[in-house]
Design brief:
Keywords: Hydrolase, Protease, Repeat. GO terms for molecular function: peptidase activity. With 158 residues, the chain is mostly helical. The protein is built from eight helices and two strands.
């Protein structure tokens, strides 16, 4: 098993824990983003931190996106005493958005060259979904952040 395979496994295990804590049956791209934001010292974490996105800020952005989505259908979390999510009892499976993010990551470089920033780039390349909505609501320029990741990768290749 390569160093990147071990790293990817650790990212997915953290994402699985995030999904279970959300009560989700699937690991989605936003769980991967939370996992990367929590990975102290990785390039992905450093790039996220450079725009003010630590794990807590990503969680806050995701919570804001959830509240915004509810308000779009006329539900105000402030008006209702909504229960928090129950920790999922079964191990979450890989969801479509996470699979697509991983596929985009893997297609961006040769396997031996993959790093944490490639995973982040795969997540940021999504044009629709929870992550783009959460980043937009947090005032993060997703395209600009993806460009910053690309610049970081290019500078590391030199």
């Amino acid at each position: 098993m390569s160093a990147f395979d071990k790293y990817l496994h650790a990212v997915i295990v953290r994402a699985m824990d995030e999904a279970q804590n959300d009560g989700s049956a699937t690991i989605d791209a936003h769980h991967l983003l939370l996992s990367l934001a929590a990975d102290q010292g990785s390039t992905a974490q450093q790039v996220l931190a450079s725009v003010g996105l630590d794990r807590a800020a990503v969680r806050e952005a995701l919570d804001r996106e959830f509240e915004h989505s509810l308000s779009m259908v006329g539900v105000s979390p402030a008006a209702y005493d909504l229960p928090g999510p129950s920790r999922a009892s079964q191990q979450p499976k890989m969801g479509a958005s996470a699979r697509l993010a991983l596929e985009r990551s893997f297609s961006s470089a040769r396997k031996k060259d993959l790093r944490s920033a490639h995973l982040l780039l795969g997540i940021l390349q999504a044009q629709i979904g929870t992550v783009p909505r959460a980043l937009a609501l947090a005032g993060i320029d997703q395209a600009g952040l993806a460009d910053r990741v690309r610049q970081t990768l290019n500078s590391q290749d030199q």
